[in-house]
Amino acid sequence: MSAGQLSAEAVAGRAVEPGLQATGLTKSYGGVCAVNDASVTFHHGRVNALIGPNGSGKTTFFNCATGMIRPDSGQVTYRGRDITRWAPHRVAAAGIGRSFQLCRVFPRMTVLENVLVAARARSLRTLLGGAYDRELVDRARGWLARVGLDHVEALEARNLSYGQQKLLELAGVLMADPETILLDEPAGGVNPALIGRIGTLVRELNAEGKTFLIVEHNMEMVMSLSDHVVVFDRGRPIAEGPPWSVQADPRVLEAYLGV
Amino acid sequence: MRSASDPASLRAARWGLLAVAAALVFTFPVLAPNAYILSAGVVVANYAVLATSWNFMGGFTGYISLGHAAYFGLGAYGTGLLVTKADVPSFLALVLSGAIVAVLAVPIGIAALRVRGASFVIVSIALVLILLLVFQSWSSFTGGSNGLNVPRPFPDLLRPEHHLVFYYLFAGLLCLALLTWWAVDRSRFGMGLKAIREDEDKAQSLGVPTFLYKLVAFVVSATFTALGGGLYALWFGDLDPIFQFSILVGSYMVLMALLGGIRNLFGPLVGAVIVGSALEYFKLEFGDTQFHLVAAGLLLALVVLFMPDGVLPFIGDQLRRLGPGQSSIREVSAGELLEQNASRGDLPGQGDGVEGRAAPAPSEVTR
Q1: Which pLDDT score is estimated for B338?
Q2: Which helix (H) or strand (E) element contains residue B271?
Q3: Any CB–CB contact under 8 A between A150 and chain B?
Q4: ipTM associated with this complex
């Protein structure tokens, strides 16, 4: 399944199911409006990308959507459910997992523990049950193998390289079994080989049914990976559509080149 | 996994050491040459209970409370007042005051846990100071600075026998606290708490209800501290706000836990034995001077400088380094790590499937 095909289908009018959706979302810091009355819809089941110049409000938007920051006004819904101002752990429980811009792992926990943390306990009994139960460890190892970190599971996470920490973060997010995954600059500070690897993973996982929303500066990655691109400038979307149409949009060029 | 990465011989040594330590703890009253040494043992056991209780909060979540003396004092005064004012049997009073502190800890926790880091430390100190003032000023009820006499639970016992009984009571409470800590440590709940210590926001984004987790840890920590305080009241029999609600007692709990190692089940216990014995020794040697405080400060400085993770992890590292052929385990995997990195860098197209990656045979050696 290539990205081009999907976009073509979308253009041809295939029904698009809304996933994460924001309406009139606003967040300002002092006098600076980081997100300014932004209304966006991301498509469920697809690979969505959010791009825009530095300081255009992408990460703030991301943080408002996942409950890390309280928006000043506006509404966030996920598959029709209002999740505005939900605490981050509730957003996670609703099926949205996320990574952080400057990759965050638990430095003094082992690689395996970093993944085990994300196992959701649904009852008091499982909560007080062993964190190293066979079933959990097997599942965690499965995700570590998937991202290619199974050989370092006993190391403390701080001993990993930056790129490996990014993969580890992804494995942790996957362990929580979200249906939508938000990645904040997955290619940032990562060598080209690893970028390719992350891209492949995203494509595979999307084929398995995961929805993605990716904030990214690496245009090559965005254009090759995504079905739907939203361009942010000064805190609000200025263009959206399939990658090829966005790429040619004069407003996008203007925002990026500052003409 | 931790247990899997430890060599078997080290694990056997650990069990052996644990057995020896337990035997030492339980035969100490027999070995103690006189009642004074025995009473010092009770003091150390009490400190061990307090430091282990503190570590439910400090060790798991990384929230450093300098004000845990508040729960020590509340537990002690709760027990004392229930016995003297309401004629409740001693040990029922102890359990009741533990329950009362558990209930009180909920609103206190809800308020205090809204802030992190240095702010949390300040808030925790503020509570002790407030309680100190309240218990000093409200003398009609608490006895104020004149103190509160708590009748002994076993009036027929001679002094050495009294110490003996309470030594074992404290040891029993310590066992309960250690068992609980151990159970939390290996549970999913404990895993969530440790994630909070490492990166609270990240833990929450992975679905850990951080506030609830912290609150439960806080209540458990306060309750065990209160039980330690209540037992102290029944043992010592005389309470004074200036000692029960002292910043110093709270600081000792922190010092002991840090010294022993807060990531370690037995860290606070080891710290309590070291600091507690040292304090008793300095008090004996230098009388009622403030020299024991200077000594405690020096000890803390030494630990921070040379063993930032505490005594137990330091000893563990040394043992691992000495152990035959074991030093290589970490280095091998680190070397492999580099190797893997290098080979990954050379093969940009290898992300095409899980099967393609099933090859890294050398990594099997690490496990």
Answers
A1: 54
A2: helix B267-286
A3: yes
A4: 0.88
